[in-house]
Amino acid sequence: MEFVLDLVIDRSLIKEGLKGIIWTIFFHRLFGPITPGTEEFLDTTYPIANDMTELNSLIEDKVNHLAKKAENLESVESNIENNERVFVEHMTVRFYDKKVTKSKKKIGWFGQGRSSETDDINPWETWVIKVKLLPVPEAKKDSRSDKKESSLMEENQNITSASFRSNLKKIIDISDAHKDHIPPITSSESSPFPYSIDTNIDDSGSSPYEQESWGKYIKKILD
C-alpha cells in the first residue's frame, strides 16, 4: 500500500520537521520491543525510539541530504500571492517483506536434485512525503520591509506548525485504519521488516517546482 503526505514547511525548519514526520511513521511500524521516547517540534510532541541509534542516524543523514539540497536552491519569491513556483522534493519510506524461496533443480544423469534458496524482497508499505518549501523572506534594510519580513516569518512558522500537526494526525489515522496488509511478524527484533529511506525518487525528469498557487496549499492546511 502507498500513502502520500504533503508537508509544507519553512526552509529553516526542514531538518527537525521532516525528522519528526519520519520518526512518527517508524514508531507505528516498529512491532518489536523498543524504548519509547518523545521529542518536540514547534510545541508539538512526536514519538521516537530511544534505543534505535542506527535508525536515528539514517534518518538524520537523509534529512540533512535533502536540507542541503534545499539550501542550494535559488531563493523563492517572498510574495506569496504572486509566487507560482512551489519547490517540491520527495522522500520515501518503504517497509519490505523478506521471504525465502526454496527451489530444487535437477542435475546429472539420474535427475538428482540440488536445493537452493533465494531471498524474495517486496515492499508491503510505502510512504511518500512531498516536501513543499515556503517562500523565503527577502532581507531589506528599511523598517517597512523589516516588518513585512517579520510578519512573513511568523506566518511561515504558523503554516509549518499546522502542516506538521496535520501530517502527524494523518499518519496515526492511517496506521490505525490499515493493518490487514501487514505481513506475519516472525521476528522479535525491534524492526522485524527491512526498511529504506530514499530521496530524489522522482525520476520522471520533471521540474522540482509545481506550477501551483501557494494559496491552494495554505488554504488546505489552515481549513
Automatic annotation (TrEMBL):
Residue stretches of biased makeup (Polar residues): 185-210
GO molecular function: protein kinase binding
GO biological process: autophagosome assembly
GO cellular component, one term: phagophore assembly site
Family (UniProt): Belongs to the ATG101 family.
Keywords annotated in UniProt: Autophagy
Disordered, as annotated region: 139-158, 180-211
Pfam entry (one): ATG101
Cross-referenced PANTHER family: AUTOPHAGY-RELATED PROTEIN 101
Superkingdom to which the source organism belongs: Eukaryota
Compositional bias segments (type: Basic and acidic residues): 139-151
Protein name as it appears in the record: Autophagy-related protein 101
